[in-house]
Amino acid sequence: MSFMLRNLKAIPLSWSVCISGRRLLATQGTSEFVLKNKNRPLRVERELPDPFAHKIKNRATFVAFSVGVAAALAIIFNYEKTESPIISNTFYHLRRSPRTRELLGENIEFDGLMPWVHGELNQVAGKVNIRFNIKGSNGTRAIVRLVANKDNEFQEFLIREWSLTADNKQIDLLEEGDLRTLGWN
């Protein structure tokens, strides 16, 4: 630094910067730079790159980025569905249903590497129309369908349809008991 500050006088110095061969000096307490040679202005001596030179590459990058963001959002929203209390309550009742355990086995869980809940699951609006794949310890796969709604925020969800389809056999889970509502608001 002493090499760069050798010929400067009468300015309180804190540090100097060398940008592309031109020496700049920063004065202490201010953020302003002083050129050592004031006859030569500070400017870029090269041409800026053309942003439209690689149109196909830029468009492909934008499409790939958009697809990645859309896929990430879909995975995040699906994760929120799989972790909702409605799904947890549905699994609770499926695991305790004698007809379901007879058909699927004891260990009932989502089917597949990544569970996917299809349909609308909107607890705030009071609309549930979902379906998802499950499997049991017997190796049998099944599809669960749940349709429920509520008229206002002070009511419980009223179940319209709750079925389990496995091996072309449909089981109406509402016939098993007096469960007509989902037990939360």
Automatic annotation (TrEMBL):
Membrane-spanning residues: 60-79
GO process annotations (BP): mitochondrial respiratory chain complex IV assembly
Record flagged with keyword Transcription: no
Keywords: Membrane, Transmembrane, Transmembrane helix
Presence of the UniProt keyword Membrane in the record: yes
GO cellular component, one term: mitochondrial inner membrane
InterPro entries tied to this protein: Coa1, Coa1_fungi
Full protein name: Cytochrome c oxidase assembly factor 1
Organism of provenance: Zygosaccharomyces mellis
Higher taxonomy: Eukaryota, Fungi, Dikarya, Ascomycota, Saccharomycotina
